Amino acid sequence: MEPTGNLESEQKYDAETSTPLPALLEVPGVERVSEPVTDHLEAVYFDTPALALASRRITLRRRTGGTDDGWHLKFPAGPDQRRELHAPLGQPETVPEELADHLHVYTRGEHVIPVARLSSQRTTYWLYGPGGEHLADFADDRVQAQALHPPGPGMACREWEFELVHGAPRLFTAAEATLTATGAGRSRHTSKLARALGDAWPPEHVPRNRGPRKKAPRKKGPATDVVTAYLGEQITELLTHDPGVRLGRPDAVHQMRSATRRSRSALATYRRLFRKTSVRRLRDELKWLASILGPPRDAEVMRERLRQHVRELPKGLGHGPIREPIEHELGTAYNAGYKRVLKTLETGRYYRLLEDLEDFRDYPPATARASRPARKTTTKLVNKDAQRLDRAHQTAADSGDGTSHDTALQQVRKDAKRLRHAAESVTAIHGKRARTLAKAAKRLEKVLGHHQDSVKARAFLSHLAAAPDLPGRTALAYRRIEGVEERLAQAAEAKYLKIRKKAYGIRLD
Fold it and tell me: What is the pLDDT of residues 285-298, one digit of tens each?
């Protein structure tokens, strides 16, 4: 079950016990302020013993009291913004599964435990605009906090939260003068949990390619930056789509596999810039993960492809007997593959791969060659991938017909995909030329993807048609669809030959 959620936009202020309340009606744009409502809130915050969530500025709590009691999971979403997911209260120390599915990619096999307990008296004022629109909420919190892990002394504080409801972000600026006129100031803490943990609050886990000292790849900067920036994008994709895979969201497996393949492509293209053993190990592990993600995705694609063919058959062939074996076999393959994916995402091997990828990004095992100027270095390496593709074209042209030809065309597709990813990784420093190369490689990859899908579909249909005791009419229908796929494969190859002529010889320089 998907948790409910919303985007939270708020700013926090530190106030003393004696600080007077701000004159909220003086905030520009505020026409009316509601009568105050006071609630007593009890919250327990959870994290791993090593505070893995806090290091990424993710907070997980179970709170009672107020209008939104339940489990709350919050992710950073930009300045003054957090993406918040909610789930019902459930059991006191059992994280609801729908929230846990969003956490595994960060906790990586570690259990979460209570790390802090907060008790707050919250007084809330609702702020309305001239048209009656609910602009924002102002909350005056008087907090008692106790760190549980690591244990620490209790502490008390007073904090204000100014949260937008339907108001625009400019309301933050408009309200600041009124709020600070009381003597309050913008909070030095990102959350109440940070305040409760004090010195135990961990430094923020900032990817090397997004750190304050890290610039975007530059033409004369080190070639390493190109690789770590691109790899960082793919790691973000993996972390983003992992929960979607666990929750069964459409296309999540496909997106996760694409990020896995892109990462592997980058390591293949730029392998000479890094220590061989490090690159080899990561490429092998990424290949392993892609092999797990592949079967359910392939079954999904083929099932939709054959469903369309069945819909287009003449009515007299009887769709039911034709469709049922397709649905059964591909549905079984998808379910078995997806079950294996879910099992894999809970393994130490998968979590180690994520950690190794992040370590490679943040502390790349670079050789001396990696420090050379990016433009010149990447030109040579990306063009090598283009040459590799040219050789694959020639092999396909010389391969004759039949299975060996299909295999050669599939290799062209793989090399085109690798070149596309390589070109995408250098658009920041090669501009239009890199985009042109990526576009050409993508066209090749796409048309040969259709060809490969047809090859697989024909093999599957041939398998179905060969089943014993199959009614003749059903076997005829499978052969008919197989013929359609044969024509589609021929059309795809003809299109490939035209695209190949236009794409042949394209280089970065």
Answer: 999 999 999 999 99
